[in-house]
Write a structure and sequence with these properties.
The structure holds two protein chains of two kinds. Chain A is mainly beta. Chain A is built from two helices and 25 strands. Among the domains of chain B are: 125 residues, no CATH class; 76 residues, no CATH class. The chains are: A mainly beta, B mainly alpha.
Chain lengths: 495, 393
């Protein structure tokens, strides 16, 4: 007890100088959706329609397999109402009396206020996204706690330690990390029940993750190398082992050539890769890129053994600003999958696809922005065609109102159900002061399923959103700064 | 320069101490009779307490309380009365030349009148519009102005040059900083101010020449460049991809990931409105890597389950009714879009046909499959289908 008192007394002076930044973003939605529901009837109860196809007596098309006693079909599912309230709380604390020492945390609080429990992602109710203590000096940054890293290999979450060593004169950074990993794309361990909604196989223990990241940056270019391995501690076998390289060269003003590739050392094949040439000036921005995409699956699933094949694509985009109030943009991509080497004579499937979009943005006068675009997309599994427009009015620096609308058709390749969507909405937001921001939105959402049987249904509804952002802070007037500043309280050399 | 006004306001509030110079104009023919320090090195700048008592003794005049200033003045002026007289050599200015407005009587004393400083020094502009080369004439750098508090710094007014839409670009503050960073910019700024935006891996070298002073972050560098219009967030992708160098002069990676991640409840607009309805087209042949931000298991499968889009009662339900024999010939589509399959199907769905133990033994291995390597890396995966009889040495 005496030691605690002594520690508290010693800490009293530094803590008195403690500064903090706490940001709270809460967003509430009232939405509903309606899926489908599997049902069946006795094969003998199925009736033929005018074309000879079988259906239920009330008009739903059915699938009757030879020799089966029952035919199956899908009815419109029940209306599911969700009222999710999701709150992100992020904070930084510094000024502990040790120059460069700070603590950072981000948590996600989620709850579905409806009785349907319909909204995904609200379980568990509290998720710690990040929470670490950091010591930053000129040449070294060390972190301990829950962290998320972003590298060419994707997002990597873990509970552990991460040390970055810098050689400023040579512009070199080298980082190493070690810890217990989180699942990919979510701040939960792989053992969490929330990650197994379909009751599939699930790991019994968290993986051990370790990695190395090195980068070099100079005026003319940059290069980066990332290595990462994940090991199942129960079997001492690999969950994944990958390496990635990426780099960019800036040969002259406005021009950038960049690229990178990933190699899956566990599976023994190359993953995704890309090479692009970019050009950017005040009036013209363009990008031409060749890329290859291949998904990555961890070795504690069997999916990698199914040999997912990559696709190769060529895509480009261009943005032109012929005059100050006008901006035109277009983008497009064509892609083709590698041969799947599968004998499937009964099923034909698409092996290539394309995407295209054109649009324009106009600022006819101060405070007004009109934006519109049209897009088409066709490829394996699904297609999409439609367009949309929005008008934004910003009467003051602190207030914004946007009216928008769009319509899309969405045919599917393997599902006989074309969905047509029309949306009309209104969004608004205002900064009551430097520390309080409010937003409201309303959307008329009309979804029409076009089928020639009773499964055709219209799903029109209103969706409402409301949000509030609160900022609590001491130790600087950083409220309106870009996120970089919120993440680097007081600057790098702050005491 | 900026703080000159600031200091002046302090002087007005504190230095006169309620003393009405004009009312006493007949009593004091000389300024230096009270403010000897303005002329003589080492002499006090302020009169003694007893000076007032000669008259304000409670009989001749009412008693007043006057105490000369003892604490350091909160200012960033490099001005010293005696040195200024020496520097002025043969044309020392009378006190009234700085402490009164032009045309006012000698005893209409004010804090230093900035405009008159500028006049003498040949600066023909308003105070804050003075050329950048002029600041250091009268002002200390922020790092050396140790008496100023963080609150004082926060009240520094910005010069009109900073309002120019091009100010944030290389040709704006960048050009000034390269030429006169340590002399003029340093009047109001220090390293930490720059790091508010230049937070990338390689800040401009000029910043290293700056002094360090945490008080400098009291000024917020929060304006976005002119190129960042209201819809810039929707249009920045190509620009960022083409030239990360220009982005990284102000942004760090974490900025991007504020939106480009699954937990961005504070930035729900990453996907365009209506994306939910048309996401299949983007997801089947991944327009981008969805699982960088979304967990297929918790995000995709959980939502599909709520919508009845998962295989809960076997694979022969006819859900893929756009292709009559899809179950029998799905292999090609599956190898192309396996991530999409996984968002509705489990490994258990596949085993009845693809397992070598109790299943129909349909071999799922295809191009690129390296059995020996995978066996070596994690044989447990193999046992899901092969049981204890995993082929190989």
């Amino acid at each position: 007890m005496r030691r605690v008192v002594v520690v508290l007394l010693l800490a009293a002076a530094p803590l008195a100088a403690q500064d903090y930044r706490l940001r709270l973003d809460a967003r509430f939605q009232s939405v509903s959706f309606r899926g489908v529901e599997l049902d069946s009837i006795l094969a003998s109860a199925a009736v033929a329609d005018s074309t000879g196809s079988l259906q239920t007596p009330d008009g739903f098309a059915v699938l009757c397999l030879p020799g089966e006693a029952y035919c199956t079909y899908f009815r419109p599912g029940p209306q599911r109402v969700g009222a999710p309230l999701v709150t992100m709380v992020g904070g930084s604390v510094w000024g502990f009396g040790v120059r460069g020492l700070s603590a950072h945390g981000t948590a996600r609080l989620g709850a579905d206020l409806s009785n349907d429990n319909a909204w995904p992602g609200t379980d568990p109710a509290v998720q710690l996204v990040e929470g670490y203590v950091q010591y930053a000096a000129e040449r070294v940054t060390a972190r301990a706690g829950r962290q998320i890293l972003y590298t060419r290999l994707g997002t990597t979450g873990f509970d552990g330690a991460n040390v970055t060593w810098r050689v400023p004169r040579q512009h070199i950074n080298v980082a190493g990390y070690l810890g217990w990993g989180l699942a990919r794309g979510v701040a939960l361990p792989v053992t969490s029940p929330a990650l197994n909604p379909l009751d599939d196989f699930q790991p019994q223990q968290r993986q051990i993750i370790a990695g190395l990241d090195a980068d070099w940056t100079a005026r003319l270019g940059e290069a980066r190398l990332s290595y990462q391995r994940e090991v199942d501690p129960r079997s001492d076998k690999f969950v994944s082992e990958r390496v990635a390289v990426s780099g960019a060269v800036r040969p002259s003003a406005g021009w950038t050539v960049s690229g990178g590739a990933e190699y899956d050392m566990a599976a023994g094949w190359w993953g995704s890769a890309d090479l692009s040439v970019g050009y950017a000036t005040r009036t013209v921005t363009g990008l031409l890129e060749g890329r290859r995409y291949r998904p990555h699956f961890d070795l504690w699933t069997i999916w990698g053994a199914f040999s997912p094949v990559p696709y190769h694509s060529l895509r480009g985009s261009v943005t032109v600003r012929p005059s100050r109030p006008l901006q035109l943009h277009a983008r497009g991509e064509v892609y083709r999958f590698d041969p799947a080497e599968v004998s499937a004579p009964l099923v034909s499937y698409v092996t290539d696809g394309w995407r295209a979009e054109v649009g324009a943005t106009v600022e006819p006068r101060t405070g007004w922005i009109i934006d519109g675009g049209y897009s088409r997309e066709f490829g394996p599994g699904a297609a999409s065609v439609g367009g949309g427009a929005s008008v934004t009015y910003t009467p003051t620096r602190h207030t914004r109102v946007t009216v928008y609308g769009h319509a899309h058709d969405r045919p599917l390749e393997f599902r006989y159900s074309e969905s047509v969507l029309r949306v009309l909405g209104l969004d608004g937001g205002t900064d009551l002061n430097d520390r309080v921001r409010l937003s409201l939105g309303a959307m008329r959402y009309a979804e029409e399923r076009r089928r020639p049987d009773a499964a055709e249904f219209d799903w029109t509804q209103w969706r409402l959103t409301a949000g509030v952002t609160l900022l609590f802070a001491r130790g600087g007037d950083l409220e309106n700064l870009p996120p970089a500043i919120r993440r680097m309280p007081g600057g790098r050399n702050a005491p | 320069m900026i703080t000159f006004l600031l200091a002046a306001s302090f002087v007005q509030a504190a230095d006169s101490g309620g003393f009405d110079h004009l009312k006493h104009k007949g009593l004091f023919p000389s300024c230096t009779s009270c403010h000897a320090g303005a002329e003589t090195a080492g002499a006090p700048l302020w009169p003694k307490e007893s000076s007032c008592v000669d008259c304000h003794d409670g009989k001749i005049e009412k008693v007043v309380v006057w105490r000369p200033r003892t604490e350091a003045r909160r200012t960033n002026l490099r001005f010293d009365h005696v040195q200024h007289r020496v520097a002025a050599k043969d044309k020392p200015a009378p006190c009234a030349a700085c402490h009164t407005e032009a045309g006012e009587p000698r005893m209409a004393v004010r804090p230093p009148v900035v405009g008159r400083c500028l006049d003498c020094h040949g600066i023909r502009t308003a105070h804050l519009a003075a050329p950048d080369s002029a600041c250091a004439t009268c002002h200390l750098s922020l790092a050396r102005a140790v008496t100023l508090t963080r609150g004082d710094v926060a009240r520094f007014p910005a010069p009109p040059s900073h309002d120019d839409v091009r100010w944030l670009g290389r040709e704006g503050h960048g050009a000034v900083a390269r030429s006169a960073l340590t002399t003029n910019c340093a009047t109001c700024h220090a390293q930490e101010f720059c790091y508010q935006c230049h937070a990338g891996g390689t800040p401009p070298r000029a910043i290293a020449a700056f002094a360090s002073d945490p008080r400098s972050t009291a000024l917020a560098a929060h304006r976005a460049p002119a190129s960042h219009g209201a819809t810039f967030a929707d249009r920045h992708a190509a620009l960022a991809a083409a030239g990360t160098a220009s982005c990284s002069s102000c942004h760090i990676r974490s900025d991007c990931l504020e939106c480009h991640r699954s937990t961005a409840a504070n930035a729900p607009g990453y996907h365009p409105s209506g994306f939910l309805s048309r996401h299949p087209a983007a997801a089947y042949a991944r327009e981008t890597s969805c699982n960088d931000c979304h967990s297929e298991r918790s995000f995709c499968a959980a939502c599909h389950q709520q919508s009845g889009l998962v295989a809960t009662r076997g694979l022969r339900t006819g859900y893929h009714d756009g292709s009559r024999f899809f179950s029998a010939g799905h292999g090609g589509a599956a190898r192309q879009s396996l991530e999409s399959c996984v968002s509705c199907h489990t490994e258990r769905d596949c085993l009845p046909c693809h397992s070598a133990v109790g299943g129909r033994r349909y071999n799922p291995h295809g191009p690129g499959f390296d059995a020996e390597r995978l066996r070596r890396k994690n044989i447990q995966m193999c046992t899901v289908c092969h049981g204890g009889a995993v082929p190989g040495p």
